[in-house]
UniProtKB/TrEMBL annotation:
Domain Cyclic nucleotide-binding: 12-134
Record's protein name: Crp/Fnr family transcriptional regulator
UniProt source species: Sulfurimonas paralvinellae
Keywords: DNA-binding, Transcription, Transcription regulation
UniProt keyword Transcription, yes or no: yes
TM spans (from-to): none
């Protein structure tokens, strides 16, 4: 895939014409990264915007004992970068980001992107939407870590990220949600008994989406 084709494949740039795509490509690069590559580290200052064209990445932090604290997954066709200040020409990373599945990443010089597009009122809506989406991810993270019980944590992941739930090992899911493996098994069995999910050959199938939503939304609304 060429750089221009990679940029065109991103929904973020779908409204741009060929001339504008050519303009972005003049200050952008396309990179291929293999699994487990660290894209950037927490508190790192970056001069480029990162977009995930293909593959899978994750955002995480490390505690004082170097234990990984999972934050969220970053899927293809989305912006990777974290935006905290629109007044500067550099970006400050809130977390570590690593590649989970072989990935293609477009990097765009942030200062030039602002000058050529944002400062001219182009792509402002897309940029705002990307920032809002990341904010919603962080709100979900706060609920997951500080408000939700184990049943709510599992229910939310099953509702919002079933494909990833079935892709991961149960032990990894337990670590990610900060619950015990035995607790995860009990929650899944409870949801199955209540006919909210079914488990077929080790994979979860959702039978009642509304019931799953009600479990964690009720707690969030309290």
């Amino acid at each position: 895939m060429s750089l221009k084709d990679a940029i065109k494949s991103l929904d973020f740039f779908s409204r741009l014409d060929d001339e504008q795509i050519h303009d972005i490509a003049s200050f952008a690069t396309l990179h291929h990264y293999e699994k487990e590559y660290i894209l950037y580290y927490e508190q790192e200052e970056l001069s480029e915007l990162y977009f995930l064209v293909d593959g899978l990445a994750k955002s995480y932090k490390l505690d004082k004992h170097d234990n990984e604290i999972f934050l969220y997954y970053i899927y293809k066709n989305s912006m990777i970068s974290e935006i905290s200040d629109l007044q500067t020409d550099t970006l400050f990373s809130f977390s570590n980001v690593s590649i989970i599945e072989d990935a293609q990443v477009v990097k765009i010089k942030y200062k030039k992107f602002k000058e050529h597009f944002l400062d001219k009122g182009v792509l402002c809506r897309e940029f705002t939407n990307a920032v809002v989406e990341r904010s919603l991810q962080m709100q979900s993270l706060i609920s997951r870590e500080f408000i939700f019980d184990a049943v709510s944590k599992v229910s939310m992941m099953l509702r919002e990220d079933l494909e990833m739930f079935n892709k991961l090992k149960r032990h990894d899911i337990s670590l990610m949600l900060h619950i015990q493996p035995a607790t995860l098994s009990r929650v899944l069995n409870r949801l199955k008994r209540n006919n909210i999910i079914d488990i077929i050959h080790g994979e979860v199938a959702v039978l009642d989406t509304k019931a799953l939503e009600e479990i964690y939304k009720d707690i969030n609304d309290e």
